DNA sequence: GCAAAAGTGTTAACTGTACACCCATGT
DNA sequence: ACATGGGTGTACAGTTAACACTTTTGC
C-alpha cells in the first residue's frame, strides 16, 4: 500500500519471425519502414497488444490482417525483449514469436513487405536482427529433436523435396537417404501410397510422403542421460 | 494513424522460479501471500518492472532484496504469460525466469518464504503452478544437453553427491557410474585431485570433482541430424 | 579379514552416417 | 539399351545403459 498506484505501465507489442522456404532458401517475412525511427530499414511484422488480448492472439491477428497470413502452420513464443533503449522513441517491451508457413503457401503481400533470405538480412530496425538470429537457432535445434518440419514442408512431398527444405533451414547439406531413415524411424513420416508426377528426363518416380502429425511433437526427447530400461 | 496515442499500456512484472536441491529433493522458492488475490496461497517471487529497468535486472533485484539471494548461479528467461484473467484484480503481464541456486547456499529467508518440494507444490496463486511446470521441463531437458548442473551442484562434489542432485532434479534414479562417464566425456567435469573426508563406516574415499565451466555451455548440441564429417 | 563405498572394464543395444548397390522410368 | 534420379542394404562409428569386477578405505 502506501503509494497506491505508483506502478509504471508499458507499451507492449508482439513481434513475429515468420519463416518460409522460398526457392530453396530459408526466408523471413519483413517490412520496409516508412516512418522514423529506422525509416527505410526493414522490420519484422509487429503490432501493439490490445486491451483484452493474449500475446498469441495479437501475433495471429496482425499476421492475418496486415499480411494475408491466415495459414500459419505453427506458432510459438520465443522470448521477450525489454532493453529500455530498444525503441529510441518510446519504451516498448516486445515479445517475439516464431511462425512457420508451408512452402506451398503463397500469401498476397503488401507492397512494402517481402520474403528476405535469412542468412543475408538487410539493415534491420530495432533489435530485430538479433531476434531473427534467436529464431533461427530455435528452428534449427527444434528440427533436430521434433517433427517441426511439418511447418515448412507441403502437405505431401518427396524425400528429395524434404531434403531440400531441411538443407535450406539448417544451412548445410543433408543426405536424403539418412533423413528418410531417421524421420521414419521416429514415426514422423508415412507414405501416402502415391508417387510424384515425372519431371521429365527419366528416373524412378518418387514416392510421396506426409507427416503423421501436423502439430508439434517431441520425437527425440532425450539427447543423453535418457532413462533406460532398468531405472524406472 | 487516426487516433494518435490510443495504444494501451500494461503492468509488467518479472516472476522467478528458483530451484535448489534441499535435502536431496528439488525445491522451489515460494512465498505465502498475505493479501488478496489468493490470500493464503503460495506464489513465486515476483515484482513490478521499474521504469528504466531490464526484465533480467528486475528479477535479480527482487531476489537480492526480498530474499537474501545475491548468489544466483544461473538465471535465464523462460516465457511470458499474457492471459487477461491471470490476475483477477488488474491485468498484469508476467515474464518468468528460471533461476538456480547451489545446494550449499543457505540464504536467510523471510518468515513467509520457504523452499517447497517441486513435485508436491501447495495451492499456488495465479498461473504459478503451470509456470513451475514449464520451468521443471526446461530444467530437465537442459540438464541433458548442457552443463547446467553447475547451477545446482556445490563448487566441489563427489560423483555420488552429483548423482543425488541429478536424480532429484530429473525425478528418477541416475547411475553414478554412467553419469560420471558421460559428463567427463563431454568435458564438463574435472577432478580437483583432492578426496572427500570419510563419512565413517569404511569405504573408499571419494574423489572430488568440479565443473570446468561455471556458465552455461551446450555440450551435446545435436540430438540428431548432426552434420557429420563429409557434409561440410 | 571383512564390509562398505568408490571407481573401472567390458559388453550389448541403439542411433546415425557413409557408401555401395538395386529399382523404376523416360528417351 | 542406357542414362537418370529414387530407394534399399549394409557396414561402420559413436554414444550410452547395464553389470561384473577391482580398488581403497574404516573397523
Automatic annotation (TrEMBL), chains A, B:
Domain named Nudix hydrolase: residues: 10-140
Transmembrane segments: none
InterPro entries: NUDIX_hydrolase-like_dom_sf, NUDIX_hydrolase_dom, WH-like_DNA-bd_sf, WH_DNA-bd_sf, WHD_NrtR
PANTHER family per UniProt: ADP-RIBOSE PYROPHOSPHATASE (PTHR43736), SLR1690 PROTEIN (PTHR43736:SF4)
Protein name: Nudix hydrolase domain-containing protein
Species of the source: Microlunatus parietis
Amino acid at each position: 500500500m502506501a503509494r497506491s498506484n505508483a506502478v509504471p505501465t508499458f507499451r507492449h507489442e508482439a513481434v513475429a519471425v515468420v519463416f518460409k522456404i522460398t526457392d530453396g532458401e530459408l526466408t523471413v517475412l519483413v517490412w520496409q519502414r516508412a516512418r522514423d525511427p529506422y525509416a527505410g530499414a526493414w522490420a519484422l511484422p509487429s503490432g501493439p497488444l490490445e486491451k483484452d488480448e493474449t500475446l498469441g492472439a495479437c501475433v495471429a491477428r496482425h499476421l492475418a490482417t496486415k499480411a494475408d497470413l491466415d495459414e500459419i502452420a505453427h506458432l510459438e513464443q520465443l522470448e521477450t525483449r525489454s532493453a529500455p533503449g530498444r525503441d529510441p522513441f518510446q519504451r516498448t517491451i516486445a515479445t517475439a514469436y516464431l511462425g512457420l508457413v508451408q512452402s506451398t503457401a503463397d500469401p498476397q503481400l503488401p507492397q512494402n513487405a517481402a520474403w528476405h533470405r535469412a542468412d543475408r538480412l538487410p539493415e534491420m530496425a530495432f533489435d530485430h536482427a538479433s531476434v531473427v538470429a534467436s529464431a533461427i537457432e530455435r528452428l534449427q535445434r527444434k528440427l533436430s529433436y521434433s517433427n517441426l518440419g511439418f511447418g515448412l514442408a507441403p502437405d505431401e512431398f518427396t524425400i528429395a523435396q524434404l531434403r531440400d527444405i531441411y538443407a535450406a533451414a539448417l544451412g548445410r547439406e543433408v543426405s536424403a537417404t539418412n533423413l528418410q531413415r531417421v524421420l521414419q524411424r521416429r514415426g514422423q513420416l508415412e507414405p501416402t501410397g502415391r508417387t510424384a508426377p515425372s519431371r521429365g528426363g527419366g528416373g524412378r518416380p518418387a514416392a510421396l510422403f506426409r507427416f503423421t502429425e501436423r502439430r508439434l511433437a517431441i520425437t527425440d526427447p532425450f539427447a543423453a542421460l535418457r532413462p533406460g530400461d532398468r531405472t524406472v
